[in-house]
Specification:
Subcellular location: Cell membrane
Radius of gyration: 25 Å
Main location: membrane
Family: Belongs to the peptide transporter carbon starvation (CstA) (TC 2.A.114) family.
Helix content: 55-70%
GO cellular component, one term: plasma membrane
Strand order of the largest sheet: 1-2
Organism: Conyzicola nivalis
Mean pLDDT: 86
Low-confidence stretches: 1-7, 745-750
Oligomer: single chain
């Protein structure tokens, strides 16, 4: 039996220890066998070789396998060593302490959830549109800058933020990021953080929902398959709750089979007359349906729909990405894009306006560093964590998986012909929406090695079963074409490209919708925390009346913006995505600033650099991008410059201007750019206030030393669970003791 200290034992002497002795854990971590040493040397060498091939040995082409190996090897090293360093020196988890899921268990919002299910739920919640769309759009700047930012950025910034926010929120009873900021930074910084997180959250959820609407509109296959995941998730939740508690593997297999049936069935339904009539939906009714779904998902008990549905969708998400990675290793496609393109320095790219710095780091948000994750990590997930040591696996490990999604999206976009890429991602105003116009525009960009022909565009459209692929902006169609192009070389040939394309479109819609339901629930928690400062009863998330009121307010807010985006004559994604990127990164800076203040108050000043490094970078990038968007005189970059240009065109009696083909569209540009500009000023001002107050709080803590903690009082745990995906030897031995008990202590959830 593993040795245990007094702190690991329950007060009930009849129960086994609730945690493995820290000395045993330390010994396991330090045990290096020759085989273990050889494995890590091999990982380091393979990773080093891959980076050399990508960054140094740059010929006319680069093989896509080096992206996979560089990413995976870096993730392994970052997780094994850097996250362990953070756990040992900053986090210092204690599994003898009960988590909020145990001492606040209510079976609704607080429910102890199996770490594997929770990993799936958390990953599904954080992995929205960002890791799919951002890297695709940023591919115009070349493959190397985006690759470095996605892989290195996640290890040093994104995963660090997710891990620390999750742990600190868990220690504070699952408090929201805004409320933690109020507790740690005082009234000024806290109020600014609360306003910023609430307003940014509304924008983020609305854009996530808008991407879903754009992907599912007029697609009966996608609507049917995504809709079917809801009853499947309800069945899984009831199965784990009432019929077979704890049988995670069993319900996983059942859910996976049902999910495959929904996907295959969607293709069959889409070919029937009744299926087309029933499941073909326009954007506005689809948006209303998503708004209703968001409300219902946020108020139902988390074990019934949210956790099992997100866990279910994780099968498809991780399965598809791993399948794509394996296909890349086997097919070994060549990447013809340059390491750094001409658009990185000129800032005149037709896909993303602006130079590499700072706009690459804003365009690629999720996958490297995302403020939205901080809201999930301080919203639903910390209320479900079963043991403190699991936060490294769920928080840091979950973010590494999202980064891998982003790398695969980047490779998929880079794998298609560059001419086709720009024809798909240039605006309809630039291409005229026609094959001939797209060919003339792309060939007129003057890129070396690019010679686009009408036959290439028509053949690609025919292969994927679409009438046209010209100006299919937003990133999702490009990713679908890239995935289909790689997968058809492995399975099925060109005859199956249409299947793989529509499979990818549905995969993306499912991917993003899971972030909408989790985001809505988190928004409800945030608003309840905020209102609770004035009406204390709202802080009780189990109070159904308060939960319903807060949910209705937040859903109405993002729903209104969603409908505005859906009915925008220029397409809402073009209006809102730039604002999404900057707001998301500003939110990350806010989250890192709060973490820095908490670490300082803990007295761990030697390790402040772990947070100060990514905070400084994020602050410089996002504030620079915000200032350029606000003050740049170039209409393609600056909101107010574009607003002035379009207002002048209207005053001159123009009936079309720039990307706007009608007077109505021109007026929409004037209205939308003004809204974007005002929101940008609000967001950057609030972020600067939070960062400055966090720095002041850190300085005060350095002068005074460690101060009184805002953590909840420690409660003795009465349950045991392993920390990682695979239990260690000591954990297996202790688990065997718990398995021998005649009646296990009942968990609050899964």
């Amino acid at each position: 039996m593993p040795k245990t200290s007094a702190s690991t034992r329950t007060k009930d002497g009849n129960l086994p220890p609730v945690a493995v002795d820290p000395a045993i854990l330390e010994a396991e971590d330090r045990r290096w066998t020759p085989a273990k040493i050889a494995i890590w040397i091999a990982i380091a060498l393979l990773g080093g070789l891959s980076w050399v091939m990508l960054a140094v040995v740059r010929g006319e082409t680069v093989n896509a396998i080096w992206f996979v190996f560089a990413a995976v090897c870096t993730y392994f090293i970052g997780y094994r060593f850097y996250s362990k360093y953070i756990e040992k020196n900053i986090v210092k988890p204690d599994d003898s302490r009960a988590t909020p899921a145990e001492y606040k268990a209510d079976g609704k919002d607080y429910a102890a959830t199996d770490r594997r299910v929770l990993y799936g739920h958390h990953f599904a919640a954080i992995a929205g549109a960002g890791p799919l769309v951002g890297p695709v759009l940023a591919a115009q700047m070349g493959y190397l800058p985006g690759t470095i930012w996605i892989i290195v950025g996640v290890v040093l910034a994104g995963a660090v933020q997710d891990y620390l926010v999750m742990f600190f929120s868990m220690r504070r009873g699952g408090r929201s990021l805004g409320q933690m900021a109020r507790d740690e930074l005082g009234r000024v910084g806290g109020t600014a953080a609360i306003i910023a997180t609430l307003t940014i959250m509304v924008i983020i959820v609305a854009i996530l929902a808008l991407v879903v609407v754009n992907a599912l509109a007029e697609s009966p296959w996608g609507v049917f398959s995504v809709a079917m995941t809801i009853p499947i998730a309800l069945f899984m939740g009831c199965y784990l709750r009432f019929f077979r508690p704890g049988k995670v593997t069993e319900v996983s297999i059942i859910g996976f089979v049902l999910l495959l049936a929904a996907i295959i069935g969607g293709g069959a339904v889409a070919e029937t007359d009744w299926g087309v009539a029933l499941f073909t939906m326009d954007k506005v009714p689809l948006a209303i349906g998503i708004i209703i779904y968001g409300f219902v998902a946020a108020v139902l008990p988390v074990w019934l729909l949210l956790a099992p549905r997100d866990y279910l969708s994780t099968f498809m998400k991780i399965g598809t990405i791993v399948m794509l990675a394996i296909a890349i290793i086997i097919v070994r496609p060549e990447i013809f894009a340059p390491a750094v393109s001409e658009f990185a320095s000129t800032g005149t790219g037709p896909v993303v306006s602006g130079t590499l710095f700072p706009f690459l780091f804003v365009t690629i948000a999720c996958g490297a560093l995302s403020g939205f994750h901080a809201l999930i990590a301080s919203g639903t997930t910390p209320k479900l964590v079963e043991k403190e040591r699991q936060t490294r696996f769920i928080g840091y490990g979950g973010m590494l998986m999202e980064s891998f999604v982003a790398i695969m999206a980047l490779v998929a976009a880079l794998s298609i012909d560059r001419g086709i890429y720009f024809a798909m991602n240039a605006s309809a105003a630039a291409t005229g929406g026609t094959i001939e116009g797209a060919v003339a525009f792309v060939n007129g960009l003057g890129m070396s090695g690019v010679n686009l022909t009408p036959e290439m565009l028509q053949q690609t459209a025919d292969n994927v079963g679409e009438e046209s692929i010209v100006s299919r902006t937003g990133g999702a169609p490009t990713l679908a074409v890239g995935l289909a192009n790689i997968m058809q070389q492995l399975i099925g040939g060109s005859g199956l490209m249409a299947f793989w394309y529509h499979f990818a479109i549905m995969f993306e819609a499912l991917f993003i919708l899971t972030a909408v339901d989790a985001g809505t629930r988190v928004a409800r928690f945030m608003l309840q925390d905020s209102i609770g400062n004035f009406i204390p009863k709202f802080k009780n998330t189990s109070w159904r009346v308060g939960a319903w009121i807060a949910t209705a307010i937040m859903v109405a807010a993002w729903g209104a913006i969603l409908v505005m985006g859906v009915t925008d004559p220029l397409g809402g994604i073009n209006t809102l995505f730039p604002l999404f990127g900057i707001a998301n990164q500003l939110l990350a800076a806010i989250a890192l600033a709060v973490c820095m203040a908490i670490i300082a108050k803990r007295g761990y000043f030697r390790f402040l650099w772990v947070v100060a490094l990514p905070l400084g970078f994020a602050a410089v990038v996002t504030i620079s991008a915000s200032f350029l968007k606000i003050f740049s005189p170039v209409p393609a970059v600056g909101y107010f410059a574009q607003n002035a240009a379009f207002r002048q065109a209207l005053a001159d009696g123009e009936t079309s201007f720039g990307t706007a083909p009608t007077v109505e569209a021109m007026e929409a540009v004037v209205r939308n750019t003004m809204v974007q500009g005002i929101l940008s000023i609000l967001f950057v001002t609030l972020a600067i206030i939070v960062i400055v107050t966090a720095i002041l709080a850190t300085i005060r803590a350095a002068r005074r030393g460690a101060s009184e903690s805002s953590e909840d009082p420690a409660v003795q745990s009465k349950v045991f669970a392993p920390a990682g995906l695979i239990p260690t030897a000591a954990e297996r031995e202790l688990q065997a003791e718990w398995d021998k008990l005649p009646a296990k202590p009942k968990r609050g959830g899964h």
